[in-house]
Structure formats: C-alpha cells, structure tokens
Amino acid sequence: MLLEVKNIEKSFVEGVPVVRQTTFSVGENEIFALLGPSGCGKTTTLRLISGFEKLDNGEIYLEDDLLSSTKKHVAPQKRGIGFVFQDYALFPHMTALENVAFGLTDLPKHKRKVFAEEVLCRTGMGDHQHKGPAELSGGQQQRVALARAIAPEPKLILLDEPFSNLDAILRESTRKEVRSIIKKAGMSAVLVTHDQEEALSFADRIGVMNEGRIEQIGTPEEVYYQPKSKFVARFLGRTNIFEGEIEDSDIIETKIGHLKLNRKAKGKITCSIRPEHLTIESPNGTSDKYQKGMIVAREFKGHDITYHVECDGERYIVHTDNRILFEQNDEVVVRPLESAVVLER
Ligand SMILES: Nc1ncnc2c1ncn2[C@@H]1O[C@H](COP(=O)(O)OP(=O)(O)OP(=O)(O)O)[C@@H](O)[C@H]1O
Fold this sequence. Notes:
GO terms for molecular function: ATP binding. The protein is of the alpha+beta class. The protein folds into two domains: 3-233, Rossmann fold (3-Layer(aba) Sandwich), CATH 3.40.50.300; 239-342, CATH 2.40.50.140. Helix content is 23%, strand content 39%. It has helices spanning 42-50, 96-102, 109-122, 138-150, 168-185, 196-202, 220-225, 230-235; strands at residues 3-13, 16-26, 31-35, 57-62, 65-68, 81-84, 156-160, 188-193, 205-210, 213-218, 240-254, 257-273, 278-281, 292-300, 304-311, 314-321, 331-336, 341-342. The strands form four sheets. A six-stranded mixed beta sheet has the order 6-7-8-3-9-10, sandwiched between helices. It binds adenosine-5'-triphosphate. Adenosine-5'-triphosphate (ATP) is lined by residues 12, 18, 36, 38-44, 194.
C-alpha cells in the first residue's frame, strides 16, 4: 500500500474528537474518496495526512515510512505529497503559468514552462496562462491550483473539494481530465468531498465518513448497492428503507408486498432498496402478493422519471426510465426488481 492511515484520532477541544479511530489505506495509482457531510472530519483527516495538523493517536505511513505518530511528525514540505486545499492560495504576483512552473524543480529550466503549459491546457486554462490570480475567476483559480499540484507528479495528491467552484459542465470535464492525468502519471489521490456523485464517478474506492468515523469502505458499486448502514444508504443517494421482524428467512413482508432480501436474517431488521431497483405496474393482472398504491408525485427528468408512491400510509420512491408512464393519482403496484439489502445498523 502507498498510504496507510492507522487508527488516527484528533481533537481540537479535549473530549470532543473530530477524527475517531480512522483506518484506511490507499494503493499505488488508486483514487480514494473520503465522502461525508459537512463537519464529519474529512478536511481534518486530510490535514493530518499532509502534516498541517498533528495527530493525538495512531500512525500515518507513506511507502512504509512513518510520517506521523504521537512521537514523530515529518514537516508538510518534506512529505512529498501534493495538495489542493479549499482556499487554493496561488502566488499573487505570479501568472498562472509561473504558478504551475514554480514547483517543477526536478525539470531543467527550459522544460518547466512547456510542461506547465501542457498541464494548464489539460485543465482548460491554456488561454489564461499569462494572467495573474487577480484576473481569474474563482473557478479558474481553482483549475490553476489543480494544475500546480498535479504538474510535479507527486506519488500522492490530496484534493479537498477541488471542483467546488466550477459549474456543472466544467466540473464534469475538469474531473475527467484530472482523473486521467492522475491515472496516466501513476499517481494516487485522496479526494475529500460531500458530493456523492463526485465520489462515485471519480474514485476507485470510497470511505463514507460520519461523525469522525469511517462507516464503510468499498468500491462505488459496493457502497451504493451494498450499504452497511442506514447512514451510508441514505448518504449515497435516495433509497427506500423498510423495517420489520422476520423469522430466519430471506423474505420480509412490507406495505408494498413480499420483498426478497440479499441474505437470510432473523429478528428485527432494517433493509434498503434503491429506487431504480423498484418498478411500478398497472394493478390489472398482477398477482395479489403486491399491494396497491397511488402515485402522489412525479418528477420528470427527461431520460428518467421518479415516482412517489403511497402504499398504506407509507411513501416509496421508484425510479423508472421514461417509457413507464403514469400520472399523478394513478393506481399502481410497486414491484421489486432486485433484492433489498439487509443493513447492519
Ligand atoms: N483548527 C480547528 N480548531 C477547532 N475546531 C476545528 C478546527 N478545524 C476543524 N474543527 C472542527 O472539527 C470538525 C470537523 O471539521 P472538518 O473541517 O474536518 O470537517 P469536514 O467534514 O471537512 O467539513 P467541511 O466539508 O464543512 O469542510 C468541525 O466541527 C470543525 O468545526
């Protein structure tokens, strides 16, 4: 593993831990995202890795070298880690090109600007390379900061909400470019974000953080489709939660009817099923193992439609493609297409 974070802990105020017993590792050429709501400790975790904060407990290793522990603290500039922080401070008296070229000390002088220009072009800033930070918009400065951090090709790069100031279209294209630069150069990255779509599309693996702890680590598909907790299920996108009691079975009775579970369970259980794993049908001709419900709201989004269906006082969300057309107040049955995932907590 390239980066190993072992049981790290940090409090700013005694007795109020901000990062608790956090453990994860990042492999060679891997992009790892720390995803969680505002205030859950993501930035602090990144600052502990960069060395801008000292930890209270635990250890951080890069290529088996100890960077941080309670006894040792390697200075940030000596860690060989690149970073883009939320406040992306660029050198104000330098142009965009000079900002990016500045860190390329490993290259011969005449090659620095050529390479810096190439990276700026790839982050869409080629036309603005001779402007100073004051002449650039927030989003443009953010792209220069990204180029500056990536250009020296550090083994590991830390990215704290690096696309937050870009509009939706620019965000997607910049994300793709940055991902491809990181992958091609063989770098690894830790991305901090509260945007689930960003984590799902950018990272190879995601650690979902809640109140200072990582609740689950997995590939985007695992954390999205196999969440371990209610928090992870809900934070990764819309979902339908069912609660009930069963006797050693993989079927639960719900208000939409029988629902198959991904495994056998017993006692009180909670399970989750994504809206796209449910569908709706006209009640005519379907067997009576599915309960009737009514469409109470509909969100048409062009390529797909989200229906809100009320069954016996409970609301469910169903996501279908735009060929399944119903109107508000239509009577329907909700039918599962996949099994529901039993949550551990
Ligand atoms: N230097 C500090 N001194 C005191 N408290 C701090 C300090 N830095 C962070 N905190 C507190 O630690 C908690 C976690 O902050 P952190 O910035 O790590 O969260 P985050 O998940 O990155 O949130 P955001 O996405 O809003 O940046 C917050 O309650 C914050 O107020």
